Amino acid sequence: MLPEQSTEIDDKDEVYRKRYDKMQREFLKTLICDEIIEEHKNKPLGQHSEALERVLYYFRRAGMNDKYVVKCEEPFKKYKIMALSGVRGRSPRLVEDKIYETVQAAYHGLFLRRVQDLMEA
Amino acid sequence: MAEIKIFGYTDKLSVKQGEKIDFHVSADGTKTAKAQLVKLIHGDEHPDGPGYIDQEIDNKINGEWKVEKQFTQLGSFLKVKDPENKLAIDGDFTIFGYIYPSTPKTGHHQWIFSRWDNKTNEGYGIGINKDGYLELVVGDGKEVDYLISELPIVKKIWYFVAATFNYKTGEATLYQEGVLTRYNSLLGKVVPYDYRSHTKTTFRFKQKNNPNTPFIVSGAEDLHELRGRFISGTYAGKVDRHGVCSKVLSKEDLDKIRDGDLPENNSIVAYWDTTVGFSDNGINNTVIDIGPNKLNSEGHNHPVRAMTGWNWNGKNDNFRLAPKEYGGIDFHPDSITDAKWNITNSMIIPEDLKSGIYAIRLRSGPGTGLSEEYVVFFVRPKKPNSKLCFLVPTASYLAYANEKLSFEATIIQPMTGQPPTITDIDIEQYKNPEFGLSTYDSFADGAGVCFSSYKRPILNMRPKYRTSGMGITWQFPADLSIIGWLEHNKYEYDIITDEDLHKEGLDCVKPYNCLITGTHNEYYSEKMLNALEDFVSEGGRVFSSGANSYYWVVAFSDEQPWCMEVRKLEAGMRAWAAKPGEYYMQTTGEKGGLWRTRGRPPQKFAGVGFIAEGFDTAEKYRKMPDAWHRTVSWITEGVEGEIIGDHGLAYGGAAGVEIDRYDLSLGTPPHTKIIASSGGHSDNYVLVTEELLYAYAGLVGSLDYRIRADMTYFTAPNNGAVFSTGSIAFGQSLPSNNFNNSASTVMKNVIDAFIKDGKLPGGAWTLEEKQWK
Ligand SMILES: [Fe+2]
User: Fold this and answer.
1) How far apart are CA B135 and CA B150, in angstroms?
2) Best residue in A10, A17, A47, A59 to probe B by mutation, most B CBs within 10 Å?
3) pLDDT tens, B451-476?
4) For chain B, percent helix, then strand, then coil, each to nearest 5?
5) pLDDT of residue B768 exceeding 80
6) pLDDT value for B583
7) Residue B257: φ, ψ to 5°
8) Is residue B325 predicted with pLDDT exceeding 90?
9) Rounded distance, CA B715 to CA A76, Å?
10) What's the confidence (pLDDT) of residue B773?
11) Which region holds residue B385: left if phi is over 0, alpha if psi is between -120 and 50, else beta?
């Protein structure tokens, strides 16, 4: 954020949060590798290596705006990925048409999107 | 054609054979729905279990029901009872009161004190305009005059405001002054704000008073073609003492009222003293007018009382010490505690309908997802006729009713260790404020929700529902796994609910030998807890099947038993925190918070109490040395080896989700045996906050030995006993392998022993050992 932009923000806490977030992202990018992606694919929930766990902690703590969630179309059969609005009363939006046959596959698909967003940001 | 949606609720959750129950249904896109009475047997569709099971019951209620779209009044407000229209003032007036707006600038007009019709623009009132400025409005049905203050209202600051109108000259004034002290507002005296504004103008028009317009605090009368009369423009924030005079008060007069004086007696039309009516046992929803006309007002959708007022001095921390400092009443435009839908159909519960959990299944069109609804209710026998009883934790269902954590709580994913799994039903619930909030949510203005009611559809109190944050069944549908187990094993059982236990106390459970509690019976009123404690000490047996039980203090009023109050404060895993000075419940005058902070930790009654939650995985139990002790070895008879519960529909283990631990320092009965304990929980299982004095790194599953579920057993006087699983996931583990598994074996051993009259197994050894060691 440019200095002139930050002085426009009423809540100065947000200015620091953004700074902290940038440092986090820079560090977490260095942790992303094939190994942790494979690890997540094999076991999306539960205890993970420290590297994967740190990345997941970050993803889970993100703000609600545009945060990914799994959408169950048919229990135990059909899942999709949506993004929350972050605004009470406003529906989440579908982010892709891809169908996952298990919730574990959807968790991993969602993780891959988060990794991609992190690397591109 | 519009998408078909059906939702419903009943007028009561618990109903006896022979009694009447009303169904309130609203539907979109259809005028009819096919109704079928079903007995619910199992509610979890997880492929490792038996799936959804119900039983269709013949009854004349079955068949086509006429349904309609119903409307819901949102927002809390006070409506004044003014049968003689004393407030229809065709002359000079002054309106005044203390206000503490939570969100002054919303983009919508918020009415605070009004006798105004939003449809016809008739009447008078003061409110906050869409830009956040105080505003006096006067209208005659054709034209409207406004007077606005010079400075916008600052949020969460106490003000004294007033408006005067001279009927003859048309002179209108608007008075606004901050009355903040060191304690009462968000900000203190160091902030160099000027809160004061005094404006004046001459109106061209005068108020016209429609005889049908009510005087409303927080909102104004409105009319909609289909739904009829309702209240719109509700307000977010507190008010304290307020009133109306039939004369123009001078600035000096108003200064005196601002400082706490009453207006001159002969000018008062109404003076609502919001501090009148408190007792040690709380205050109800009636606000008392101490003026000559006694125009009391009634709360709708539970305006929150027992809130700190404009003159709260920070020393007295509850209304029982200083009621005069507790005139605050907090309003929320998104509060709803009674949907007040028309009755769609009614049913007399047949005398021969077995006690159990039932629903009216409604289907229309496709009959799945949003076009299928189960309106759930609980049938009690006319007279208890089993040794065994399942106590349905309806208070805890209320606490979680329509929670929106997955959509708006940043904390939910770190807590559950997974992304939410939502469905169309969750989205529908989130889109429609009419379904209301849970005690895990906050109002849009940021205040925690402290009332929850079942007079509205509760979409997570449905079979098949999976809680979105965790992707498993939770509360009601999880409890159906215990019902499924009872049915599978052909036990005779009765059903009672928390509401029955609260109303009837010990009498309600005394006839039974054994009570089974739900998987997560977290919310308890004092009467409920007392009844259970007396039950056990007089010889009853409790199979405490869940975890994080007997935790929050809650209150129910006799007049509105469908609505529960909870205040979350100081300690405990909590979704919000009550504000300083607002820790005592208006319903009973009791301090809210955890039972633990009132000298009754769950360990004292159940042997175990909340220690951790994680939600990403679940583990198994391993027998502890006590399991082989001759006094309790009967509990694990038939369980080969050391492992119990390495299976289940909640993350594949019987020990998990939320877990409880044995702790002598918190009152676990000293002779309690630990039959088995879990372990190896992931680091997503974190120690509960009430255990924390100092926070330090590593209070997680792999580093803290306390993080485990303890399965415990102790005996009580007169052949009473309590068995606790210490785990929410235990219930969901029962259906594995068609109810044939180690957790099920343990439960069967315990229930079989608990329902028998007379002595418990293992008791023969106690005399010989003198002490039960
Ligand atoms: Fe809970």
Assistant:
1) 10
2) A47
3) 999 999 999 999 999 999 999 999 99
4) 15, 35, 50
5) no
6) 97
7) -65, -40
8) yes
9) 43
10) 46
11) alpha
Q: In the numeric block, which tokens belong to residue B142? A: 């054709």
Q: What is the mean pLDDT of chain B?
A: 97
Tell if the CB–CB gap between B422 and A90 is shorter than 8 Å. Answer: no
Q: Rounded distance, CA B622 to CA B710, Å?
A: 10
> Looking at residue A7, what is its pLDDT?
74
pLDDT at position B570: 86
Packing angle of the helix pair A12-29, A50-61 (nearest 10 deg): 150
Chain B CB contacts of A62 below 8 Å: 410
pLDDT at B72 over 60: yes
pTM over 0.90: yes
Angstrom distance (rounded) from CA A60 to CA B409: 11
User: From CA B492, how far away is CA B271, in angstroms rounded?
Assistant: 59
Minimal CA separation from A45 to chain B, in Å: 6
What phi, psi does B273 have (nearest 5°)?
A: -95, 100
The amino acid that residue B112 corresponds to is I
Alpha-carbon gap, residue B290 to B133, rounded angstroms: 30
Q: How far is CA B43 from the centre of its chain?
A: 23
What's the average model confidence in pLDDT over B121-131?
98
Q: Is B693 left (phi over 0), alpha (psi -120 to 50) or beta?
A: alpha
CA B532 to chain centre: 21
- Taken in order of first residue, the domains within chain B and their CATH numbers are 5-72+346-379 (2.60.40), 77-331 (2.60.120.200), 380-755 (no CATH)
Single-letter code of the amino acid located at A73: E
> Which of 85-114 (A) contact B at CB < 8 A?
86, 88-92, 103, 106-107, 110
Identity of the amino acid at B221: E
Parallel/antiparallel/unpaired status of strands B345-348 and B328-331 = unpaired
Judged by a CB distance cut-off of 8 A, whether residue B181 touches chain A is no
Closest alpha carbon to B548 in B468, B627, B462, B614: B614
The span from the CA of A105 to the CA of B379, in Å, is 41
What distances in angstroms separate CA B59 from CA B6, B63, B352, B564, one per listed residue? 21, 9, 11, 32
From the list B58, B560, B132, B505, the residue with the least C-alpha distance to B340 is B560
The pair of three-digit structure tokens given for residue B336, joined into one six-digit string: 């709803």
Length of chain B: 773
Tell me the two tokens of residue B487: 């049915």
Whether pLDDT at A3 is above 70: no
pLDDT-derived band of residue A1, with 50, 70 and 90 as boundaries?
A: low
User: A with B: how many residue pairs have Cβ under 8 Å apart?
Assistant: 87
